[in-house]
């Protein structure tokens, strides 16, 4: 072999080895995803918040996912989807794991919050054995445009920092068995949260679009009086808590061998018709005897009551001061066998309205009866509310010169049991009368403002009524449904009445809610600050265009501008005002919204065309409707309207028939009694129609016809109307009827 041949062979061998080495390097440096789809990661950022979306395009199941940042960034918080948990290591790595893996083709999202905007995120996807499936780094893109007014689903991820969420308990010193108000901000929007006392779940609530909530919870009676953690826990286990001490049950009297004998619930001045709940304290386990004497010292009543183991006593039945109780000075002697106390009061009358129920307790199905006196020759409005505060009946009664008031309400056997409230209003005077169905009544707590609308800086006078000497809580809720100021405690007078002056300095324009509560009972009243009249275009309507006496009217409507004052007035067929009320047109998406159900047709209403007038500044609107009889008429009543002595062609007249079900035959003839011919130029042109359902017309109204017959059936509406365009010299009726029917021939 020559030297040249040896060199050629060596050169070829070197080239071959170089090719092999280069090919090996290429194999090592080629990315693995050239050969198979793996895990793809996207991220979207807005300020310090970033959402990471992981899609498993590999053939393996992803069991955990790890992320970490560069040295210039750090994590502040993170959020996972339901079923996933996250853990931040001391090295700054967040490890997301789940019992449910990300299967091929599935995706999952995580949210993070960093100390700087738009961080680059390093990531690694692992299988169940912690073997790496894929690794990479992703740079965030801008978040896509948000669709407005779209409520997120409960299970959609929302990024928020729970450490920034806040909530508080009102009152700050709650008691065992009491109700508390819980309010908070900066939580996830439209999400459901659970409320806990230590490890016991008490209830749930949902936040609004701003992450705000306000709800009421009740502390269980078996809760131990001690320091506890109030917790709010989201669906992923994240929690926010505050620590407060829960006190003993309200009104608990320390056990002692010598508790002072007291009596409460009797004011210094009592009026006829007053409703008294008498209670007090005494030696536990004993009993008290109460003897009531008149001004002559004569015993007129005697009651007994047991003192419980906490030292409290209460008369089994409330006392109603009878309408015929003589005026003067009275006294009560209370004794428990060891101690004696004497209480004096005066019965007098400065009330305009004095009404009582015939019984404190009525059985379901029994007729509730009320009677009393009021200002003579003036109308009085009576409103009956059920135990839930819902109006179930109202009426306006005209009082005669005797001043006597009488009202009855029939009940059913399945009626809701509890305390019913009759509210009697005459002018500026208002009284509350209580009666129970299925149980003795208790005195609820009520409030009333001296005006509906105030100017900023005004002082609102709030009148309260409840149980004598009770301490009630007053809470103001602003137009954003947030508490305004602190909860206010008000002590009622011995007669159950109270008053509070609310300074409106710093109150912005809008509609507010005032909530007065005592224990589990509460009442809410609305008032406004800074509202004006001048609604712009205004429209109202009612759900029906015909009403019978005693029926309630639901009024709906809208105004061009929201948060304005509107006055509604009910006007009868004579143009006389029956009732007037000022309301709010609450601001909605499009102008103001009107809704009111406090109007009712009086029981003695005269049938005819009535109207409801809505006025706001220079803007007004009239809604017309019919009041129809609520009676069963026997026989036949026929009347004519619009007839003159010298009618001319084209005149219109009303022919009204009130009778009984069957058929009605209308025959039109000349003065001589003969029927006109079809060629007569005086022949009436007419058409027939029904206001509702189907007319029972047995023959068409055609010029060739000489007679018209209407047949009434059980499905025929109670009100028919037809229209004629020509006048006939004389109308004669022939009719045969047997049950209720009303229609108009016009």
Q: What form results from the Cα inertia axes? A: globular
Largest sheet: 8 strands, mixed
Unreliably modeled segments: 19-36, 145-150, 252-256, 659-663, 667-746
Strand order of the largest sheet: 44-46-49-48-47-50-51-45
Percent of residues in helices comes to under 10%
Radius of gyration: 40 Å
The end-to-end distance, rounded to whole angstroms, is 136 Å
Structural class: mainly beta
Topology:
Layout: H1 3-29, E1 39-46, E2 49-56, E3 62-69, E4 75-80, E5 84-88, E6 94-102, E7 107-114, E8 121-126, E9 132-138, E10 141-142, E11 166-170, E12 179-185, E13 192-197, E14 200-206, E15 213-218, E16 227-233, E17 239-245, E18 262-264, E19 269-271, E20 275-276, E21 279-281, E22 287-293, E23 299-306, E24 312-314, E25 319-320, E26 328-335, E27 340-348, E28 354-357, E29 361-362, E30 367-373, E31 379-385, E32 391-398, E33 404-410, E34 418-426, E35 429-437, E36 446-449, E37 453-454, E38 459-465, E39 471-477, E40 488-491, E41 497-503, E42 510-518, E43 521-529, E44 538-542, E45 546-547, E46 552-559, E47 564-571, E48 577-587, E49 592-600, E50 608-616, E51 619-627, E52 637-641, E53 654-659, E54 662-668, E55 686-690, E56 707-711, E57 720-724, E58 731-737, E59 741-745
Parallel strand pairs: 1-10, 19-27, 29-35, 37-43, 45-51, 57-59
Antiparallel strand pairs: 1-2, 2-7, 3-6, 3-8, 4-7, 5-6, 8-9, 11-12, 12-15, 13-14, 13-16, 16-17, 18-21, 20-25, 21-24, 22-23, 22-26, 26-27, 28-30, 30-33, 31-32, 31-34, 34-35, 36-38, 38-41, 39-40, 39-42, 42-43, 44-46, 46-49, 47-48, 47-50, 48-49, 50-51, 52-53, 53-59, 54-56, 54-58, 55-57
């Amino acid at each position: 072999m020559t030297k040249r041949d040896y060199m050629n062979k060596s050169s070829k061998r070197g080239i071959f080895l170089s090719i092999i080495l280069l090919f090996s390097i290429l194999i090592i440096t080629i990315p693995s995803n050239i050969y198979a789809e793996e895990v793809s990661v996207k991220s979207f950022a807005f300020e310090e918040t970033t959402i990471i979306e992981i899609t498993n395009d590999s053939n393996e199941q992803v069991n955990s996912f790890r992320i970490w940042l560069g040295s210039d960034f750090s994590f502040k918080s993170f959020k996972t989807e339901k079923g996933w948990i996250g853990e931040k290591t001391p090295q700054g790595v967040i490890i997301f794991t789940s019992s449910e893996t990300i299967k091929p083709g599935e995706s999952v999202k995580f949210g993070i919050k960093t100390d700087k905007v738009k961080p680059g995120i390093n990531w690694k996807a692992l299988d169940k054995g912690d073997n790496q499936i894929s690794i990479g780094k992703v740079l965030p893109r801008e978040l896509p445009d948000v669709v407005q007014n779209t409520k997120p689903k409960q299970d959609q991820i929302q990024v928020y920092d729970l450490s920034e969420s806040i909530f508080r308990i009102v009152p700050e010193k709650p008691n065992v068995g009491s109700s508390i108000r819980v309010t908070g901000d900066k939580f996830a929007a439209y999400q459901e949260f659970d409320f806990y006392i230590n490890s016991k779940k008490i209830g749930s609530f949902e936040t609004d679009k701003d992450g705000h909530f306000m709800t009421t919870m009740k502390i269980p009676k078996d809760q131990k009086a001690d320091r506890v953690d109030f917790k709010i826990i989201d669906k992923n286990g994240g929690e926010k808590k505050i620590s407060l001490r829960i006190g003993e049950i309200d009104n608990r009297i320390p056990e002692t061998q010598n508790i002072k004998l007291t009596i409460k619930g009797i004011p210094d001045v009592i009026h006829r018709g007053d409703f008294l709940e008498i209670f007090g304290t005494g030696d536990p386990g004993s009993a008290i005897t109460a003897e009531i004497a008149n001004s002559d010292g004569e015993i007129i009543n005697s009651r007994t009551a047991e003192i419980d183991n906490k030292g409290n006593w209460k008369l089994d039945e409330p006392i109603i001061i009878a309408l015929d109780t003589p005026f003067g000075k009275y006294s009560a002697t209370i004794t428990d066998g060891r101690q004696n106390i004497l209480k004096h009061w005066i019965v007098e009358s400065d009330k305009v309205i004095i009404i009582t129920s015939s019984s404190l307790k009525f059985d379901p199905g029994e007729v509730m009866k009320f009677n009393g006196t009021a200002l003579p020759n003036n109308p009085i409005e009576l409103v009956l509310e059920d135990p839930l505060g819902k109006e179930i009946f109202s009426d306006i009664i005209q009082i005669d010169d005797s001043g006597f008031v009488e009202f009855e309400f029939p009940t059913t056997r399945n009626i809701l049991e509890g305390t019913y409230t009759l509210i009697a209003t005459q002018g500026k005077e208002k009284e509350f009368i209580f009666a129970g169905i299925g149980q003795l009544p208790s005195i609820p707590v009520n409030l009333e403002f001296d005006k509906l609308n105030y100017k900023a800086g005004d002082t609102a006078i709030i009148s309260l009524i409840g149980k004598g000497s009770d301490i009630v809580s007053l809470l103001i809720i602003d137009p954003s449904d947030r508490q305004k100021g602190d909860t206010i405690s008000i002590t009622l007078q011995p007669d159950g009445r109270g008053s509070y002056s609310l300074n409106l300095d710093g109150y912005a324009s809008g509609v507010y809610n005032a909530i007065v509560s005592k224990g589990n009972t509460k009442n809410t009243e609305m008032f406004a600050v800074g509202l004006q009249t001048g609604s712009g275009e205004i429209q109202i309507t009612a759900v029906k265009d015909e009403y019978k006496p005693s029926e309630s009217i639901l009024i709906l409507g809208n105004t061009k501008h929201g948060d304005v004052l509107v006055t509604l007035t009910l006007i009868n067929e004579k143009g006389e005002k029956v009732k007037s009320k000022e309301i709010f047109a609450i601001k909605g998406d499009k102008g103001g919204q009107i809704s009111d159900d406090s109007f009712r047709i009086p029981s003695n209403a005269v049938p005819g065309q009535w109207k409801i007038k809505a006025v706001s500044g220079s803007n007004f609107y009239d809604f017309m409707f019919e009041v129809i009889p609520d009676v069963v008429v026997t026989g036949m009543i026929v009347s004519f309207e619009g007839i003159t002595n010298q009618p001319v062609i084209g005149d219109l007249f009303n022919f009204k028939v009130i009778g009984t079900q069957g058929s009605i035959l209308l025959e039109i003839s000349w003065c001589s009694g003969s029927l006109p011919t079809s060629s007569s130029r005086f022949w009436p042109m007419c058409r027939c129609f029904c206001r509702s359902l189907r007319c029972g017309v047995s023959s068409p109204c055609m010029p060739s016809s000489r007679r018209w017959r209407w047949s009434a059936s059980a499905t025929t509406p109670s009100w028919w109307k037809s229209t004629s365009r020509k006048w006939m010299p004389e109308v004669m009726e022939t009719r045969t009827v047997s049950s209720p029917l009303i229609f108009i021939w016009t």
